[in-house]
Amino acid sequence: MRTSLRLRFTMFCAACCAALTPTYAKAESWLCITDRATGFYYDEISRQWKQTNFNVEESKYILRRSPRSEDAWELQQFGEESIVPYAFCKDGFNDVGILRCNGFSAGVVLFNRNNGRFSNFSGGSYHSFDPNSELELFRKEGSDSPFVALGRCTKI
Description:
Blueprint: H1 2-26, E1 29-43, E2 48-53, E3 60-65, E4 73-77, E5 87-89, E6 98-103, E7 107-112, E8 117-122, H2 136-139, E9 147-155
Antiparallel strand pairs: 1-2, 1-3, 1-9, 3-4, 4-5, 6-7, 7-8, 8-9
């Protein structure tokens, strides 16, 4: 009886491992860490846009296959499980290994899986400024800063 129970347990474990292996093998994801970011901020006193560098210490993302059928990939802020990802990637990688993603606050994110580099460009609210807008984000000059960020991704 005892041998039979061990054999059943071993067979159960083997079946579970076999079932999980294809999913794991297909899973592909990257940890992306921003190295530098520069852009513009709106100076309320001078009422001008000025150049600045941004603190990127907390700018880490996970790039992974999207669970939603309408997106191929998604970029999620590291440590956050948000319903809305930082960026959506409608299509997969192109022929030269580039993935293009878009997001409301993210702007455009480009990732090259061949060299692990990514860039993130956003116009912020600079081009969307409209004092008569129904959205507060667009009514206030300087509510969202334009930026360019560069970083690297490591396969995990």
